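Section 5.1 Outputs to date
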Amino acid sequence: MKVKNRILTNQIKMIMKKLTLQIDKKCFNAILTGEQKVERRTVWPSQVTKYVYFECEGKQYKRQEDLPDNDSPVTILPVEYDALYLINGRRKDAPRLLVEVESAEFIIFQDDDGNDMVYEENGREYYACQVWYHLGKILETENIV
């Protein structure tokens, strides 16, 4: 019975939608011990498709550049992942965690007056923003000493 359950567990892990991220040792250990329950990632224009998508006029767009040029309202939503695969370092034997994602939220930073913060890159304005992944249980560990 244990062998059958292990095979089923491995099959579930294979079909999970996972986001692989590098993470520093301090945050890695805080997640491992349960002290850190939220992993925050800044959304840069070069990585936007990894973290968010855009909804406008009932359609989904992967990139801000693909949105229609009109004044229609746009909703920015985090890409949904089942788990984060966190790697501390670049060595082949680097410590790794597979952590359940309970939910994710898109956060736009605001200045002291409550205005959305933006910056410009290559002539386009982008929000100063992050995606916050609310973490659940640790599903798997590798190379933990």
